[in-house]
C-alpha cells in the first residue's frame, strides 16, 4: 500500500467520521461524556457453513466454470485478453471487446483504475465518497456497455434456401450467450432456436509461460467457429470490424484525418489504421499510434469505411481503397470471410487485432526515466502492422503453444473454480497496471494508476509472475532491487525503486526470500553467484535491525500497512526469520560457511524468542517497545492476518520449518476463529473507517480483530492507517489460504478462497479484477501461492530437484507445473501394489536428478522403477538407473546422473510396496 497524501486524507477523514459517529451515540453522565471504547468483537465462532457445501468445494465439476446471459451474469465481465504489459483490453461477457485502456492515460491523479470516477457508498452509518483507489469499482462495478471506447464486433450472415439470417455476436441477438473464461482464454457460445448454426468465439492473447516476448505482443486473437447444425447446404459470411483508435482521445476537429488502408497477402488480409495529423503535437500524444485488424485467412470482402449497422447492404458492399475521416468522426474497417457449408461442416475464420501506442504519459517518464524511450514492444515493432505481420509469420507457433497451455486445466484434477481463482490474477500483467520499457525493465503500480514503483512490500506477496515468467523477476531483482533501488554501502533496498528513498522492513525481508525463489527458478546458479555479494549486504542490513541481538527485528521501519510500528511484531519477526533461513541456504550453496552460521544463529534465536515471547498461548502478537509502550499504532494483542506469514513464505520455497508446527496451526485456527466470517456485514457496520473491498452479505477474513475486547487495542494514538485493520484485502487472504493449504487445513483454505471467488461473482462485479488500492491489484497474485501449496510443489533448478505432495485427492491427482526452462503435466495415483508418478514435458526442457514425493499411504517401499518414453521417429523407452530412500513418509528418488528431458518426453515412475 501507499503513503500518498491524498490517500491519507481519505482514510483520516473516514476515521474522523467514525469517531464522530461513535461520540454521537455515547451516553452522557451529568455534564461529562463517557470515554469512547473500541467496538466489541462480533465475529461468530460458529461459521454456520453447510457441510455439503464445504464438501462440494472439492468437486472437479463436469465442465469448466461458465456464466450465462439467462442468469444476468455477463454485464460486468472483463477478462484481460491483450499481451502482457501492453495496456488493458477486456473481453466482455458476450465476446465484444471493451475498455481499451491502451492509450497511456493511466496515471496517478490523472486516470486511476478502470474508471476514474468517485462513487457513493453507504457504510451503514453514512454516505461516503469512494475513489477508484479506495474501491469504487467494487462498490459500483463498471459495465461493459457503458465503456465501449471503440466500435468492435462480429456478425454472421446465413443464407439457407431463400432465407437470409443476420446476427451480431452480442448479447441482445441471441436467446442464450454463455461465457467460459479460464484465463488467459475465454470461449463465448451463442445459441438461438431460430438459428441453423452453432456459433462460438474464442478470445485471448498468445499466452505462453516462460516465453515472455511472445506473451507480450500488443494484440488479441479472436477465432470464430460456425457449425452447420441444419440438414441443408448453407452459405455463411463472418464479418469482423474495428474502429480506428489512433488519436482517439486527443484529436479535435481540424487536427487531421483518420486513415484506413487495406493491405493483403496471399493468405491474410489487414486494415492498417493510422492518423494523418496536421498538428505535430498530436504525433507524440499518449494516444498517438496505430491499430490493425487482420483476418488470417482468405477474405471474401474488405471495407475500409464500414457502417456497423448490420444489414444485407453491409455484407454486400465492399471498398478496398483507402478511407479517410475527419477527426473526431469514427472510421471503421471490416473484413469478411465466406464459406459454403454442408451439414455438420464447420467454418473457423481467425482474426487478430493489434495496436501500437508507444508514448508513455509524461508524468510516468518523470517517475521512471526508463519510460522515456517507450515500451519494449515499441522497440520491437515500429507499428501495429509489423505486429500483425509477426503474428502471421509465427501464427502456428503462437496459437498451437498457447492452446497447449490450456491443457493445464484439462489435465488437472483440481476443481475448475479453484484453478480459475488461483490463476486468473496473472491477468494483472496484461493490464495498464504493468509496463515493460524499451530497456527491458519491468515496472508497475500497485493497482492501475495508483502507488508507483513496483513496491517491494506488495510484490513480495505476488508469487505468480515469478513462477510463470521467472526471467522478469530475476531481471527486476538485479536491475532494481540490487540496482536502482539499492544502497550498496548499507545494503538497504528502497521499497519503490527510484520512487522512494527508504527501505520497508517487510519489503526487505520479502525481497531476500525472492532472491532465493528466483535462484530456485533458474536452471543453474549464475543468478546467485552474480548477485551474492549484494544479496549478502541486503541480509546483513535486515539482521542489523535487530538491536538487542535476540533474533527479533525491533527497529521501527515502514511496513505494508503504511506505518512505522514500534516494538517486536510477530509477522515482521517471522518474515525476517524466514528470510534468514533462505539466506543460510543461499550461503551454503555459495560455500560461505561463516555467513551461513551467522544466519543460523539469527534463525535459532529468533524462533526461540518469537515462540517464547510473542505467542500468547493461542496466537502470535505484537510486543510493544519497552520504552515507548503502546503509544503509537500497532496490532499488539489483536489477531493479525499476517502473524505467521514467514512460515507461509517458507513453504513456498521449500525451506525447513521456521516456527513450531503446533503453535503455527494454533495461530491459523485463531485467525479462522476470530477473523473469518461468512458475512462481514455486522463487523464492518460497527468497525468503521475501512474501505469497501467486501460488502455485507459477503464472507472474508478481516485484517485485525480484537478478541480480548480491549478498550484501546491498537495503541493510544491511532492514526488513519487504523482503517486498514477493519478491511478484507484479498492478497492477504490468499496468503493465509496458501498457508492453510500447506499445513493441511484444506477445508479452511478452500472456503476462504471460495469466499473471495464468490465476492467476485459476475452477477455482482468483474470476476477478473481483484481490487485493493485501485484495480487489478498486484498483491492478489498471491493466489498462485495457494495453487503451489495445493500441489505441494517444490523445485530447485540448480539442484535439478522437483517435488509434489498434493493436498487434494492425492490418490488420483494431476496438475500443470512450470520450471526454469520447461513446463508440462504431472500425475500420480495409488494402487494396491503401490503408487505411480508421471510427468510429461510439453514445452522446453527440464534437468532432473532428484524427485521428492509423499507416500500416499504409509507402507514399506520395496522397489522403484524409473522409465522415460521418448518420441523420435518411433517411441523409445529409456530405463533410468536410480536409488531411493524414505524418511518421514517422504520418498526421495535419486537418478544416477542428471537426466535432460526434452519436449514430449514422458517420465514414468513405478513404486512397489
Summary, kept brief:
It holds the Pfam family DUF608. The protein is α+β, with helices and mostly antiparallel strands and 913 residues long.
Structure description:
The radius of gyration is 28 Å and the shape is globular. Strand 35 and strand 36 (834-844) form a beta hairpin. 56% of the residues are buried. Helix 10 packs across helix 23 and helix 22 runs parallel beside helix 24 (783-791). Strands 3, 11, 12, 13, 14, 16, 17, 18, 20, 22 and 23 form an eleven-stranded antiparallel β-sheet that branches. A six-stranded antiparallel β-sheet has the order 34-35-36-42-38-39. The chain is of the alpha+beta class. This is Glycosyl-hydrolase family 116 catalytic region domain-containing protein. GO terms for molecular function: hydrolase activity, hydrolyzing O-glycosyl compounds.
Query: What is the fold named in CATH at topology level of the largest domain?
Result: Glycosyltransferase
The DSSP helix count reads 24
C-alpha Rg, in Å? 28 Å
Shape descriptor reads globular
- State the helical fraction: 25-40%
- Distance N to C terminus: 52 Å
The averaged pLDDT comes out at 94
Mind describing the biggest β-sheet?
A: 11 strands, antiparallel
User: How many distinct beta strands?
Assistant: 42
**Overall structural domain count:** 3
Question: What characteristics describe this protein?
Answer:
913 residues; alpha+beta; Beta-galactosidase, Chain A, domain 5; Glycosyltransferase; Immunoglobulin-like; 11-stranded antiparallel beta sheet; 6-stranded antiparallel beta sheet; 24 helices; 42 strands; 27% helix; globular; 6hp_glycosidase-like_sf; GH116_N
